[in-house]
Design a protein that fits this description.
0% strand; 3 helices; 98 residues; flat; 38% helix
């Protein structure tokens, strides 16, 4: 697929992004898009025949720690500066009108 980088494409991108570019920005954007697509085309030239497909660069995926209960801060220490609490938790204004 060979997409021409022209004023029509830049106008289309402006519409998609809800942006407006100056003429200088449009010219710079056209040049930068050509460079980017040129680099992407070079990637297509790589020989990847014997390279296995991977979804992640590392073998160690989703290595989660054990979910162990650990000591926490003292509840009284945490609640001592609360504007209002019931000894167990903070008391905050209701977010739902009732």
């Amino acid at each position: 697929m060979n997409v021409p980088i022209d004023d029509n494409l830049i106008t289309y991108l402006e519409d998609l992004s809800y942006l407006t570019f100056s003429d200088d920005e449009k010219n710079r954007l056209k040049a930068e898009l050509k460079d980017i697509l040129g680099c992407m085309a070079r990637l297509g030239e790589l020989n990847v025949e014997n390279v296995p497909e991977r979804s992640h660069p590392f073998d160690n995926v989703n290595a989660f720690r054990e979910d162990d209960a650990l000591p926490s801060f003292d509840r009284g220490l945490i609640l001592q500066n609360a504007p209002e609490c019931d000894g167990e938790a903070f008391i905050a204004p209701s977010a739902v009108a009732g």
